[in-house]
Amino acid sequence: MIYEVRTYQVKPRSMPEVEKRFAEKYEQRKKYSEMSAFFKTEIGPLNQFIHIWGYKDLAERATIRAAAVKDGAWPPAISEFLVSQKSEIMNQTPFSPLLTPSQNGPFFEWREYTHAAGQLPIMMKNWEVALETRLKFGPLTALWFTELGGLNKWIHVWAYKSLDERNEVRNKAHNSGAWPPSVRAKTDGRPIESLVAQENKILIASSFSPIR
Question: Domain residue spans in the chain?
Fold first, then answer.
């Protein structure tokens, strides 16, 4: 399973209309394949939304997208509002849940780490060992690494009922002494991955998002 993450930046004050047109057009698009999630930024880069689509592989993605465009079912008429677009293909880690309809939000924290080249195996092992502890405090929505697009990225997405819950959960996880994964790795005497950059943003799921 792969996921295409499409990140669109739109003009200020246009998000309500963009969201409306997207939701209306999605009613036609979903007969080809259903969207996994639709998020818009609450904290971080404003006027940005992310739509995520799951596919068996790149061949299925190409077939479905071509059929939807040919039929006029896609894309939504939002070009007048667009500032930029970005598409990335994500691979699941072996311990990432599938994106299935859920209601663990409506707030989602999207954390994007860029690691040095060749560090993915270390990253994978450290997270595999530490993740069990973190899951005691709250659900994981996704854990991916990039296949196409910006390389050497590690994406983890967490769901929260409120921003206060986010703070509480993160404090509990850190106080456990086994989170983040680098802390557990240091305790166990394993190598710690080399990170180049980190960023995060808080997203809100739209009403038509299967994950919200």
Answer: 2-205
